[in-house]
Amino acid sequence: MSNPYQKPDHFTKMARKQGYAARSVFKLDEVQRRFRLFRPGQRVVDLGCYPGSWSRFVRRAIGKQGVLVGVDLERPELEDGHWIVRSVLEVSPEEILEALGGAADVVVSDMAPRTTGNKLYDHVMQIELADRALDLATALLVPGGAFVCKVFEGEDAPAYCDRVKARFDKLKRVRPEAVRKNSREFFVVAQGARPSCAAAN
Ligand SMILES: C[S@@+](CC[C@H](N)C(=O)[O-])C[C@H]1O[C@@H](n2cnc3c(N)ncnc32)[C@H](O)[C@@H]1O
């Protein structure tokens, strides 16, 4: 997760102050300020939810009436949510739908593989996770629903964006201010899940 040798920056300090486990929350915070995706009462899926800062942020936005389901290899230290502790490659859409109690309004993914330093390998592994997130979003979202997904820049990124574009009405590539300068990540923010591929309510 965070590098213990890296000096805490403005976002790290702000995350601590506001009770978030990771500075990455400010990436989602910027997405929310720009696109207004989360509203009280929604059903939301958080893929790669550990240690839980995005999940905490989402919970605050959807309120107690909302339903939050998180999937990760590790369980976040949060009470308020339904956690599936397994790889996204092994979890079925049916299992997530059952936990949600209906189709999702928003699916977010901040998943990243354990990086090796080999840029090409890390990129390919990350795109595999992003593709799995897209397939799950396709199966889980209501028509018109939204999808936010982390992507590592690289050779396969443009084709990945095209695959997302084919399933949603609108797509924006976003690089929030909280992304570290030396990071190759960006986020796709896709809105308007096409009814043909979205889950029925
Ligand atoms: C950058 S962290 C997510 C941080 C989180 N959004 C937050 O704000 O607390 C990336 C997460 O992806 C998860 N991950 C990696 N591969 C995964 C897989 N195959 N299935 C589920 N989660 C995975 C990791 O365990 C890690 O917790």
Describe the 3D structure.
With about 200 residues, the protein is an alpha/beta fold. The chain has a single domain, classed as Rossmann fold, CATH 3.40.50. About 35% of the residues lie in helices and about 25% in strands. The protein has a 7-stranded mixed β-sheet, sandwiched between helices. Strand 1, helix 3 and strand 2 form a beta-alpha-beta unit. The longest helix is centred in the middle third of the chain and has 22 residues. The mean pLDDT is about 95.
What's the CATH H-level superfamily name?
A: Vaccinia Virus protein VP39
Listed once per kind, the bound small molecules are: S-adenosylmethionine
Radius of gyration over alpha carbons? 16 Å
Quote the beta fraction.
15-25%
- DSSP helix count? 6
Structural class: alpha/beta
Instruction: Tell me roughly what share of residues is in helical segments.
Output: 25-40%
Strand order of the largest sheet: 3-2-1-4-5-7-6
Write down the CATH class. Alpha Beta
